[in-house]
């Protein structure tokens, strides 16, 4: 009996160890991909001034599926699918009208990702604002929705979300830490938009809700939640 328990405990420990190593490996692959992309931009974008170079060196990029260059990702093109995909690592540098997009291919973990081409993409205002808003939503989820599993967090980081106009009741300063003028500014924003990812839990969505103005300008996250499809539907402005 003791031998059986010991074997079972050993197998459990091995499974946990493999899981932890896998999570750490995924983070390592992503970090190595970002490092490669950063070096590639700095080597090939010779016209960047010192401030812009420093921005790329010390700021995290946006990582998206290839069709961020055109239409936005669908389920068929999601790099979470586990197949080899076109993956773009991009910086939108202050003071530059173009985004610096490094194109490469890899699986959904960014294992063995390498840069193939630097694309200087000029986005229309709405595209530029949407990318910035998407990035803000993803960062909000990563920093505040700590209960999400590693797989869920990967989905938020690498899948392009759907933008939905919503009508959630909002508490603009739940912690009481914002300046009054900030709260007033947020309340004055005319549009509420939520960025929505499919959850790995059937019948649920990962939602980050925020406010801004037309064409995603000035979009600011207010809250994030994994919620039932029905809750999202009830608060969607049709």
Plain-language structure description:
- It is globular, with a radius of gyration of 20 Å.
- It has helices at residues 2-44, 50-58, 125-144, 150-158, 180-188, 229-234, and strands spanning 62-65, 85-92, 98-106, 114-122, 162-165, 191-198, 204-212, 220-228.
- The chain is α+β, with helices and mostly antiparallel strands and 238 residues long.
- Helix content is 40%, strand content 25%.
- A 4-stranded antiparallel β-sheet has the order 1-2-3-4. The chain has a 4-stranded antiparallel β-sheet with strand order 5-6-7-8.
- It has 6 helices and 8 strands; from the N terminus they run ααββββααβαβββα.
- Mean pLDDT is 78; it is low at 1-24 and 66-82.
- The N and C termini lie far apart (61 Å).
Count the strands? 8
Q: Please outline the major beta sheet.
A: 4 strands, antiparallel
Task: Give the count of helical stretches.
Answer: 6
Share of β-strand residues: 25-35%
Work out the helicity level: 40-55%
Runs in which pLDDT lies below 50 for 5 or more consecutive residues are 1-24, 66-82
- SSE order, one letter for each helix or strand: HHEEEEHHEHEEEH
| Major beta sheet, strand line-up | 1-2-3-4
Shape: globular
